[in-house]
Amino acid sequence: MQHMPLSELSYHLTRDPLSYRTDVVRYYPEHVAEFTTSVIQILLSRSFGMHPEMRMVNFNPKYNSSQAFLRAFMRLRTKNLIPATQAVDIAFKLYRCRDKQVRKTLRHFLVSDIKRMNKCQKQTKANAVYVPAIQFFLGKSKALDEMETSSDSESDDEETKIKQLRLGHRVGVKTKNRQKRLERSIKHVNKEKERKMKKRTELTNFHALNMLHDPQTFAEKLFRKLERCSDRFEIRLLILDLISRLIGLNKLVLLNFYPFIQRFLRPQQRDVTHLLLFSAQASHDQVPPDVSS
């Protein structure tokens, strides 16, 4: 078992507890998984309502908070205690935070981390970071998918609860107090249903495409990447989807996009319906008819 040098131990003991645990946990392999999971869960569950100093990653001493969970996350990743693909997924979830400094630091950290790995060896899997990035901009999140698939079953459960309450009320003597309790219980179930629906609406209303500073430049860079892309067809479809949404939402002019997508519009082409949808998404009144037709 590897032990921490005494000089390093004395240095860490003068620092805050979270930083200390982050730096020494690698010497205790049996605790690594539990500690990293705790940091990630706290960061994801509380970061949006967390005070900036508690999640801040700035290494300035004035931000040396004992609860700097984002800084701890970055250190754990740098020490390879968090897999690269998991770190990318977490970073894009955190990118929804409205704290500009957090978003800027996350972007810099991701790029630096991939460069660091590429100095040692070619990391094809890590370089596919743009796949979760595209899914992020398209609003395709795991939380949303899970919420959509479970919404029907939750609705059925709530209806079942109300039916059970009404059936239970039929048994026994009917009094005004029992009737009031029934009404309160039904009201509570309906409120819970409204709360879940509100949460789902807030999640689905979030769309990163509406927050872009320069969508034209972004779309042009994506298209150049698409032209050189040699990834599998499913990934190219994702890029086409994102570009077409950018064009349609912002009424961009990207004339080379239309002949490019027309190359794939053949009867035998798989997912041709998706390609037709992308063509429709990218159509607006600023596009010359002879280009988009």
TrEMBL record:
It comes from the Eukaryota. Keywords: Nucleus, Protein transport, Ribosome biogenesis, Transport. It is found in: Nucleus, Nucleolus. The keyword Protein transport applies. The keyword Ribonucleoprotein does not apply. Belongs to the SDA1 family. This is Protein SDA1.
